[in-house]
């Protein structure tokens, strides 16, 4: 009887991660035992060498206030034994857990967390017994709720109902409660001045609560559910993770929702997180704070006693401005004291960020009365506070202005209970329009759609431009404070909200660990030739970073992505021209950015890549429905194009962020891809261009050996090395072995795949090579696999492809029986030549790689390599008309990998 994947996984569910390598991840045999060629020297024999010490530094420099951080550290193969414990040299308490294993069972990646009241400049991670926190975070998992205590604050998380966090205490004082998710929904979008739509109110409905970590330094609680209305209807499935650190006064929230409508009805008109905040102090001792741009701040009392016709006294006024408790009113000038009841109390405040360029701030006394404009500004921090001298809640949304329209609301601060709402989508922005952007324009048949592709580069197909199943993740912070904080403290909190403290490994350690295929080396300007390439790499990154700001590539769904192609006539990027608009990972800019960070350690590159990973992994990929596990090709809308493919959803783009930060959400996303081979039953990627009838057969699925297989392989590889899925290992190695068995290996182009065995069927000798096959992570996946799996026949097949892609037609024909045709992207493929040169130790191939890099069809050394100012567009900006994102990504990857693989052969200028 065949054992299904689900049954196999059920057998290992609940096993601690350190123990899982025994069952089928690296270090344990897949069902049926090891195959010839598997490298398994045994986990018990690993770590004979001493565990190296790793000096960690803060990505943006030491934080100026208390900071917590979680990060991942890699280890060389065979050096760190499974079960190894870790410590910080100065005695800082640390919590550690495994992220990935090498095939011999040794640790490949470990995750670590610290919480420091006074952060040091750096920390040294080493083998040893970790110090225990003075006030560890503790978790009590009860029948109906989970209680978490950081030693400073306590929180109660409900397991059902509406409230995610029902109470937050600091000591014996309740700081906040009734923490829930809120949503406004409308069925249709009003057109013109027809305003008839009624808003329906929805709130969180908890389905499951799981304790993922329980201390002593870090605790993680996962909450799953949906948004439910009063009539029992539910939509927008969500996953919320709550993060607590030992000794911390804050809670970090990661909120993810999946849009489960087709975009034609049911529109989000507001989406937020809401808390109730008890107000115990006198109205003049209650305070509202909003941090705007930089450390600019609105600092007011609910009942102001400054600027009055009568003066209560300088000490009284100074105390209110400082947020301190005012002296007894009996000590004030009695002309003020006796008239306090006539001074307005301002209960409601609202800061809205409708665009990346500006926010507005207004207030009113209470519901039913007019709003008074306070001020306007540029890019608000997203941080606010409401409370008083006896305690209050600070609240914030990361990427507040970048993800506009966002909003912060305070309501009823003049009553016994204020209400705080952090709006991820502002209700004042109108409904979120998810509709497809055109009517199809008569493209009813495949031939008509291909004609449309030939003019706008958009691959349209009716019903395919749906947002059903796309997702978005937001990061929020909440601080339970003992009193209204001074301005300096709020400014520091705003800085940490904008840029959360992140510990990072030194570049030298990342290189020496030989992770991510060993395809990068430290930045090196030691020769004029190297320096010139480094200058070009710097220019390209700095140019795109500037374009994001100048072209305003921001917004709820857009933040993190970049545009595909420039329009030299309009002097704007082709935001409205089909497949030339949003890039959606086309030709791997994600990889370019992450490898650029790994070799440089630059904080600005990390943050750029982080934003792109958050976007491309959520917005450009389907997480529900028949296309779950597939991504959408580049287009005017992120979900518009009908090409739904593995090459966009591939885990190879996400691995970097997961392993460097141990981010659980990214781990979920990669794990969800492990069964995405089943999507080939639902959708044929080549349906529009096949010349022969094709019906998907689970035992003979047509799967491309390039962009399709590399996406599947990345998911299987990640799940296997994380130690949790022996079936992933089986499928990964079976496909490797059967691709290698094809007479022309990867040059064959496509194979017939059996879902039940994970094998490709024997194939005839043929040649089918595309310029795209290796450009969506296949280079990087294969480099990692060759490092991990001792399968010489697979390496031989891959090196053949690497050698021949840019070779002469005669060379291609001699080995495979036919030439590959008139291929493009030769500069991007120079890194394949370089990889073959390094593996085969052939200087002739190394020299050829550099010739291809300098003379290929990409960026040439004699280009301007500068941007010029443009004043004829809507806003002044810069342009470099010769720059395109396809070429940039491939130039960046080719430069980085060529320097790492065949750097000594780089020709002098």
TrEMBL record:
<dbReference type="Pfam" id="PF21345">
    <property type="entry name" value="PcRGLX_2nd"/>
</dbReference>
<dbReference type="Pfam" id="PF21346">
    <property type="entry name" value="PcRGLX_3rd"/>
</dbReference>
<dbReference type="InterPro" id="IPR048331">
    <property type="entry name" value="PcRGLX/YetA_3rd"/>
</dbReference>
<dbReference type="InterPro" id="IPR045793">
    <property type="entry name" value="PcRGLX/YetA-like"/>
</dbReference>
<dbReference type="InterPro" id="IPR048330">
    <property type="entry name" value="PcRGLX/YetA_2nd"/>
</dbReference>
<protein>
    <recommendedName>
        <fullName>Tat pathway signal sequence domain protein</fullName>
    </recommendedName>
</protein>
<feature type="compositionally biased region" description="Gly residues">
    <location>
        <begin position="22"/>
        <end position="31"/>
    </location>
</feature>
<feature type="region of interest" description="Disordered">
    <location>
        <begin position="20"/>
        <end position="47"/>
    </location>
</feature>
<feature type="domain" description="PcRGLX/YetA-like N-terminal RIFT barrel">
    <location>
        <begin position="53"/>
        <end position="127"/>
    </location>
</feature>
<dbReference type="InterPro" id="IPR048329">
    <property type="entry name" value="PcRGLX_1st"/>
</dbReference>
<feature type="domain" description="PcRGLX/YetA-like C-terminal alpha/alpha toroid">
    <location>
        <begin position="500"/>
        <end position="904"/>
    </location>
</feature>
<dbReference type="Pfam" id="PF19501">
    <property type="entry name" value="PcRGLX_1st"/>
</dbReference>
<feature type="domain" description="PcRGLX/YetA-like central beta-sandwich">
    <location>
        <begin position="137"/>
        <end position="494"/>
    </location>
</feature>
